[in-house]
Amino acid sequence: MSAPAETAQSGIPVCFTARVPDSYVPLPERPDQAEWSETLDRLMPAAQAEGREFALANFPRVLPLLRADEVVKTALHISVVADELAFGALVVGLLPTRHESALVTAESIYRKKKEKFFGDLPSEQLTDIDEKLAKGLRGPEDTLLATKLPVGPAVTSISLRTLTMPRKPGLGEDGPPVKMGIALCQLTVPAPRDYTLYFTIATPTLKHTSVFSGHLAAIGRTVTFDPDEVAKASRDTDAVVGRRPVNPPD
For residue 230, is it within any domain? Predict the structure, then answer.
């Protein structure tokens, strides 16, 4: 998939690319109901009505929760794992951070997420993770890792949350709001300077969270900020490309 970043408000120069599994079908930036339906027809042409209705009812509600300041790409994955459907929505976002050090920025992001995830938890509820390419903590609902990618430092998080979906009485959805469990897998990658990339996959099929965290890890290994690689990727239909060679505003 290719997605030039051309609509940012910040004017910060952008140059990056990453490969996304070809099982992800791209969506328009703000898809309407007809575009959602068309995408699901492509992804699950032989699906049973119940599974298709579940996807059509819930993904349009989840997607806006994943937005960053600037959305570079949005895509949808549906597959069958162990005879069950696995749904995942991917959003590639960009946040202007105007930093000068990717390492310092990654450390700052890690500290903020650590406080958000684990600030109120006693230490005995946390498990240390110490691997070759990642160090961090795991709690009852969250995992947070300082990650080493080929491109540099990053932060990986996996969170389990319950989202309340308001019903729409005008569309025949009377009754109390619907609560839905969702897993949020996010990879945060600071560029060498000025901006940070957010790769987020959300799935309501919680038992398949490991499938989507694996997708995220695979994407992370392909991220690059090298201009030559970005130029090559612009001709690759399986790549997400962001390129905006303009000067920051005064």
Answer: yes
Number of domains into which the chain is organized = 1
Residues 204 and 212: beta-carbon distance below 8 Å: no
Number of CB atoms found within 10 A of residue 155's CB: 27
- Residue 6 belongs to some domain of the structure: no
10 Å Cβ neighbour count for 232? 14
**Lowest-confidence region among 46-55, 95-104, 164-173:** 164-173
Angle 70-168-166 from CA coordinates, rounded to 5° = 60
Structural domain range at position 56: 14-244
8 within some domain = no
Domain for residue 44, yes or no? yes
pLDDT tens sequence across 16-33: 999 988 888 887 666 677
For the stretch 196-241, pLDDT in tens is 999 999 988 889 999 999 999 999 999 999 888 777 766 665 566 6
C-alpha separations of 28 from 216, 235, 242 in Å: 21, 20, 16
